[in-house]
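Researcher: Quick test of sequence recovery. Tokens follow.
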């Protein structure tokens, strides 16, 4: 996971009209959790986009801001909550070491 948000408290609903999917994403105490098929009535924002559009944004063949400006991604509620979540995502080298070997004992 790439979330670096010990202070964040965010609830976002995601709606994918093309697949009829709904997700609730919540960041609290530095932990990101999601629930498929759930929505929060008092979410900070609701983000509506197609599943292929999300895939393009994830693999960075499309920019989130570009798709919002083009009307291909709709946001209802506090846009700042989405911006806050995006600001918490750490970027790291793709080939990072998961385990670093210890040198042998002398």
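Model:
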């Amino acid at each position: 996971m790439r979330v670096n948000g010990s202070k964040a408290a965010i609830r976002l609903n995601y709606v994918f009209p093309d697949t009829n999917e709904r997700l609730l994403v919540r960041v609290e105490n530095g932990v990101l959790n999601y629930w498929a098929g759930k929505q929060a009535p008092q979410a900070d924002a609701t983000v509506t986009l197609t599943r292929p559009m999300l895939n393009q944004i994830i693999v960075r063949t499309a920019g989130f801001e570009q798709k919002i400006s083009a009307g291909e991604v709709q946001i209802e509620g506090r846009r700042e909550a989405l911006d806050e979540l995006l600001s918490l995502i750490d970027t790291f080298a793709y080939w990072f070491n998961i385990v670093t070997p210890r040198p042998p004992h002398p």
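The domain at 9-87 is CATH 3.30.1050.10 (Nonspecific Lipid-transfer Protein; Chain A).
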